[in-house]
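[Q] Does anyone have a clean structure-token version of this?
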Amino acid sequence: MHPARARILPRTGWLAAVFLVSATGASPAIAAAAQAGKLEVRVSFGKDQSTTPIDGRLLVILSTDSVGEPRFQVRDNPKTQQIFGVNVEGMKPGAEVVLDARADGFPLASLDLVPAGTYHVQAVLHRYETFHRADGHTVKLPMDRGEGQQWNRAPGNLISKPAPMTITRAEGATATLKITLDQVIPPIPDPPTTRYIKHEKIQSKLLTKFWGRPMFLGAHVLIPEGFDSHPSARYPLAIFHGHFPQTFGGFREEPPDPNLKPDHNERFHLEGYNRITQEYAYQFYREWTGPNYPRMVIIEIQHANPYYDDSYAVNSQNLGPYGDASTYELIPYLEKKYRCLGSGWARFVYGGSTGGWEALAVQVLYPREYNGCFAACPDPIDFRAYTVFDIYKDQNAYYEGGPWHKVKRPGTRNYLGQIAATVEDANRLELVLGDKSRSGGQWDIWEAVYSPVGPDGYPRRIFDKRTGAIDHKVAEYWREHYDLRAIMERDWGKIGPDLAGKINIYVGDMDSFYLNNAVYLTEIFLKGTRNPPYGGEVLYGDRAEHCWNGDPTRPNALSRLRYHQMYAQKIVDRLLKTAPAGADVTSWRY
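[A] Here you go.
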């Protein structure tokens, strides 16, 4: 084998046949391609792009859309363009890596199934770094470089200029495309500091020890009006959990841009949603700086890592002690610098989606360190409803199967229940973007956070990425460590007194990813608690899709722009009700 050629494990014969039948049954052009000759793609880069060998994931995108770059046109729904991927190890300048029929592909599983035609083609080399972890494992992963684990935007990644390329198919012949990676994605500039928004970063001792190289935690800090003019005030702290934020989101210190060209938001069917977003961000600024808004410090944690754009804020065998690092390193540092009250009774957490799971998780796993969580549309908090299947009882993640028939499990929907993608679609795309849980995708990060480490140093699969078969031994590990409902039910006698009145959950009953299913099951447990009663609230939004946060007065498209305002008064009410005797409940109330 050529020393620079990607090393690819061949698919088993029956699986290749399944994909072939599926693909060729969909289109006469694809069927014809399958009967014609082979297709290969040869990719190289020069010394101007890198003088040293590169490890990583090589991705090639074929697009029928000539507007925009193909690297931004890949998704798991019917509007996706075609992508293929292979691992590369020690790819050298001037050497060619060959992608052939064995490369993983989505939606078409093989290059040999691509019909003849002219396509807009682009390649991306997503760089991996070698980590020598404290657990003795050596792994190769894509370190975040300030972009929030996005393979198509990561600084330092090599890309090719998009170009039209024509594929001709002839029986017995091999068609070849040649691509040169001739550009490097530039660094991302740091966000500006303003009167109200500050940016912080510290090196974490805990994470540095785990990963065997310097690792950092950061935060975007929103300071209250009057922070400088009230130097003796000490403030409550609100932690807004969520995905990787480039700066503090939803806060705009200048009026909306009158020259902003209105866009169309496909999800909400709204024209000019970009203008609406600016208007709501500016409105929050005006409320925040107004005379009656609750004075507090709000932070958004920066915890992107080699697997995802955030860590899920918990300790993990694969990601390291992010829960302890955030709770015991970053937060005390910020509380001291920004004059916070600095105790669990004055800390609150909230967030949506991933942030909703994180808010509930840190409240449950660190019950005395936080005085309330507001978890909106949380990722699955009961793994009996891991979106649409039960990891403990079901046999397959992709299909509900009977003796004669299998039905694919849905992955995403709209408020009418119309399906955009299946669970299998999302996972097949992730497998193209990166094996060994390295795609930076949603299913892979759940696996990376929740799973034990496998013998190769990477996360153990909860289910086979190609077949969907569930590993119930891994599921039992998940139940013990990360199934939040199961943990609460198991430990309520011990942690219940520290959680009473602190748990609040909000979700739309038509959540786009079926996350309401796990909330239903968790609500049954919470409402059945007696010693003590849980004392919070669980609310559902009628026909609301993902990101519903408990506001029944506005459509989902608008309520999701008001996360900070939604919980501010609830935080103050809870704090004043539960503050210990002698606590400072006045210096920050000006």
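[Q] Thanks! Anything notable?
[A] The longest helix spans residues 273-288.
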